[in-house]
From TrEMBL:
<feature type="transmembrane region" description="Helical">
    <location>
        <begin position="147"/>
        <end position="173"/>
    </location>
</feature>
<feature type="transmembrane region" description="Helical">
    <location>
        <begin position="207"/>
        <end position="230"/>
    </location>
</feature>
<feature type="transmembrane region" description="Helical">
    <location>
        <begin position="37"/>
        <end position="56"/>
    </location>
</feature>
<feature type="region of interest" description="Disordered">
    <location>
        <begin position="1"/>
        <end position="31"/>
    </location>
</feature>
<keyword id="KW-0812">Transmembrane</keyword>
<feature type="transmembrane region" description="Helical">
    <location>
        <begin position="363"/>
        <end position="383"/>
    </location>
</feature>
<protein>
    <recommendedName>
        <fullName>O-antigen ligase family protein</fullName>
    </recommendedName>
</protein>
<feature type="transmembrane region" description="Helical">
    <location>
        <begin position="92"/>
        <end position="110"/>
    </location>
</feature>
<feature type="transmembrane region" description="Helical">
    <location>
        <begin position="62"/>
        <end position="80"/>
    </location>
</feature>
<feature type="transmembrane region" description="Helical">
    <location>
        <begin position="395"/>
        <end position="419"/>
    </location>
</feature>
<feature type="transmembrane region" description="Helical">
    <location>
        <begin position="276"/>
        <end position="295"/>
    </location>
</feature>
<feature type="transmembrane region" description="Helical">
    <location>
        <begin position="116"/>
        <end position="135"/>
    </location>
</feature>
<feature type="transmembrane region" description="Helical">
    <location>
        <begin position="237"/>
        <end position="264"/>
    </location>
</feature>
<keyword id="KW-1133">Transmembrane helix</keyword>
<keyword id="KW-0472">Membrane</keyword>
Length: 459
């Protein structure tokens, strides 16, 4: 046998040779070892959503089970050489952490009492975000996206049945998670059971496992956006939109609106006549249902003091701005980790639960400098060299504006698993695949398409 006839030896190239960098998880990429990336990520997404209400009662601050699931998945990806640390992300994250530590120490020296568990949770959650899959594995996003759509279809179906069965009188709302699990294992800081109107026996849908109906509406809306991007059948989009309506929450409608606008502007070729027909059918069904007047009442909530919209979109910014103006030096270093719930009037006086979204919480607790750098890190991971259009921008709006997601493990981890884990490399853009090739590659972790442009922010 001549040298030319000999089969080529499989090469195992180091991370430095392939990507020109070092760092945690930068060992050799060993193809074929361990489970596929898609299997790990889909399983992690499913577990994160299923256990989001569960905690481990360890010490004074219970540990959310979602965090342990996320780090278990990351460890598996690192051990099998299918993920690595991104150098630019790692450096920016270390800078943000250093600035947050300085701000915390300065706030303590000025008389504040920062919460070390809050700071530790912040570091623990966003440390995940410095990691991404190796370029060879980015095509697995096709399978992960379809897996996410299917799991949200299941949750949406459960939510629809929850609400419809109550309206027709065949079932009375029962929180089965709260019924069968001891209270010590359940996160009681969220209101999972919310009537559609005060005093009503009919409760908003949350598919039993979601912390709140608003989260359920946002995640089903995100599932609908992913379904359109991956060219899923129209009936799947219809079911997911129905799940959004069953939560009777305006935040899911905002996610749908943002995703729809981004699709129209950034990826108009994804819109098919059947999608327009499905949305029209969903709108007709909504208008004919008892949910329509409930959602209509929520229009204009941002101007109504004490309403959900006001507590989410107006009051947090007003309270933070007022508190910082009283002591302007706090604009630079903040009041310390975890202080937003202790020092502002809504938390100190036991008022309505104000939703402190990422920007007001970061600025109040860590100041403009440290908070700004950490916010920049989050935006960079979401948008820089994304593996697909539309979804990163939708997730950005969802986590920055619609919930107090800064320290919510299920939201932070899901956002990373659908965006940052795949971004930053020479991967494939999922939204540029035609349907026949997309379906052919689905489930094989192969994928074809155009390289993602480097150095661009993708919405």
């Amino acid at each position: 046998m001549t040298p030319a006839d000999r089969p080529a030896r499989p090469s195992v190239r180091s991370h430095r040779e392939t990507h020109g960098g070092t760092g945690p998880g930068s060992g050799p990429v060993l193809a074929g070892r361990g489970p596929r990336v898609s299997t790990v990520v889909i399983g992690t997404l499913a577990l994160i959503l299923l256990v989001q209400r569960l905690v481990l009662p360890v010490g004074p601050s219970p540990v959310q089970l979602s965090i342990l699931v996320a780090y278990g998945a990351l460890a598996l990806l690192l051990l099998t050489g299918q993920a690595r640390a991104d150098r630019m992300r790692a450096e920016l994250f270390m800078l943000a952490v250093a600035l947050c530590l300085v701000a915390t120490l300065t706030a303590a020296a000025m008389g504040s009492t920062p919460s070390l568990p809050s700071l530790g949770l912040l570091i623990l959650l966003y440390l995940l975000w410095i990691y991404r899959v190796v370029p060879e594995a980015t095509a697995s996003l096709i399978t992960v996206a379809r897996g996410f759509v299917w799991m949200m279809l299941v949750f949406a179906s459960v939510g629809i049945v929850q609400l419809v069965s109550q309206f027709v009188g065949v079932w009375s709302y029962t929180d089965y998670v709260g019924e069968f699990l001891p209270p010590v294992l359940i996160d009681d800081s969220f209101n999972s059971s919310i009537p559609v109107v005060y005093g009503s026996p009919v409760h908003k849908a949350n598919a039993f496992v979601f912390l709140e109906p608003s989260f359920f509406s946002q995640f089903t809306a995100l599932g609908a956006v992913v379904a359109v991007v991956t060219r899923a059948p129209a009936w799947q989009v219809l079911v997911l939109v129905g799940g959004v309506f069953s939560a009777v929450s305006g935040t899911g409608l905002i996610v749908l609106l943002v995703g729809g606008l981004l699709i129209a502007v950034r990826a108009g070729w994804l819109i098919r006549p059947v999608h327009v027909g499905a949305l029209a059918l969903a709108a007709v069904g909504l208008l004919a249902s008892p949910v329509a007047p409930l959602l209509t009442r929520r229009m204009g909530e941002t101007s109504q003091v004490g309403s959900s919209g006001y507590l989410r979109f107006v009051q947090p910014y007003a309270e933070v701005a007022g508190a910082l103006r009283e002591d302007p030096i706090r604009f630079l270093m903040g009041y310390g980790a975890g202080s937003v719930d202790r020092l502002l009037p809504s938390g100190r006086e036991g008022r309505e639960p104000v939703v402190y979204t990422i920007i007001p919480k970061l600025v109040f607790e860590y100041g403009l400098v440290a908070g700004g750098v950490l916010a920049l890190f989050i935006v960079l991971v979401l948008l820089d060299r994304g593996a697909w259009r539309v979804v990163p921008g939708t997730v950005l709006v969802m986590i920055f504006l619609l919930s107090g997601s800064l320290l919510q493990p299920h939201t932070v981890v899901t956002a990373w698993l659908l965006t940052g884990l795949w971004a930053g490399g020479a991967g494939r853009r999922l939204d540029q695949l035609d349907r026949s090739r997309l379906l052919a590659d689905e489930g094989t972790d192969r994928g074809v398409g155009l390289p993602a442009p480097r150095g661009r922010l993708l919405l």
